[in-house]
Amino acid sequence: MFKYAVYLSYIVYIAAMVGITILAPDYIETLEMGIKAYVGAFLLWRFRPPFIGGTANGQFTDHDRKVAFHAGVAVLVTSGVVGALMRST
Predict the structure, then answer these.
(1) In a structure prediction context, what are the per-residue pLDDT tens digits for the chain, which is 89 residues long?
(2) Which residue segment(s) compose the domain that 23 sits in?
């Protein structure tokens, strides 16, 4: 299920970047901020500490590695793509 959600997120991200670049390039930075806020909020929810409802077992599973990896890729790609698009406009 996670794998399909990641693929869907990438497709939506590419479609949004292409659409914004063509139709409204002024909103590229707003989209970047929204994506980074989404990724950050998801990571805070997923890896929340015990005092706000998280688990205290300290286990970092294979699924957690995938989540952290794809979050890092999303932030890195977002920063790189937006930087390139801002230089080209």
Answers:
(1) 777 888 888 888 788 777 777 777 777 778 888 888 888 888 888 888 777 777 667 678 888 888 889 888 888 888 888 778 777 76
(2) 2-88
Structure tokens at 68: 């952290």
Burial of 35 per CB tally in 10 Å (0-12, 13-18, 19+) = buried
Q: How many domains does the chain have?
A: 1
Cα 54 to Cα 4, 6, 61: the distances in Å are 25, 23, 15
List, as one string, the DSSP characters of 10-62: HHHHHHHHHHHHHH-GGGHHHHHHHHHHHHHHHHHHHT--GGGT--SS----H
Q: Is 53 left (phi over 0), alpha (psi -120 to 50) or beta?
A: left
Q: Which residue's structure tokens are 């590229």?
A: 28
